[in-house]
Design a protein that fits this description.
- The protein is of the alpha+beta class.
- The protein has seven helices and eleven strands.
- The radius of gyration is 42 Å and the shape is rod-shaped.
- The relative contact order is 0.08.
- It binds FE2/S2 (inorganic) cluster.
- The site of FE2/S2 (inorganic) cluster (FES) has 11 residues, from loops.
- FE2/S2 (inorganic) cluster binds next to loops.
Length: 258
Amino acid sequence: MDQTVLIRVSNEAFTTMKGRETWAPHGYVAYSKVCTHLGCPVGLYEQELQLLVCPCHQSMFNVTNGAVPQFGPAPRPLPQLPLYVDSSGYLRSQSDYHEAVGPGFWSVSERRHQHQALEAQALGRYGRVGKTLDELDDRLGVARGGRTFMDKIFPDHWSFMLGEIALYSFLILLVTGVFLTLYFIPSSAIVTYHGSYAPLDGQKMTQAFASTVNLSFAVRGGLLMRQMHHWACDIFVGAIVIHMARVSSPVPSASRAN
Ligand code: FES
């Protein structure tokens, strides 16, 4: 006989489940003592709550309704042993357990899925890598700084982008301006053009204009740099003006909080 726990729940016969009307004579019930979770002995009885408790992972089984698990990881009820009282007044079992005792092999995959689901839930959306990065970040606090930085780059309200546009156009202005300085000659002296742009060949012009034409047609990437410088300048001025107009106009407090 498998390990069994015998409990007197009441003074009269009662039914734990439909079909078990004769299994608990004089209020005695008997259940398998082998936990249906991982097989620990379910040895603790909470009399007031009428619960059998497994000390391993705190599964709790209600003895009055067929030991259905009320709490914990046990996947199914404890098997109940059918009892009867013989003619001499001894308590005996009507038969063996009607179900397999202990952790059933049929619930192994179910439990594995439960376990995997719990593990995935604990790991969060980005899995093991995300958790490791999270833990690393808890120590380094990079995300907090990064968040503030990213909030500045991508603010909540689009109008805050105007300042950014002005800033980035100014940077482009600086870089392209330095490039153009290397080739532009700021002189108003009159020279005769003999460069690679044939339509102007032999024309008299200022040295500044000649160097500009040279920049556009003889220097690799020169025309692109001139155009970038030109448009960055326009955008910079436009963005600055609109940005100042926005800053000096009344804006809802929620937007200002940014
Ligand atoms: S073995 Fe009983 S709850 Fe885990």
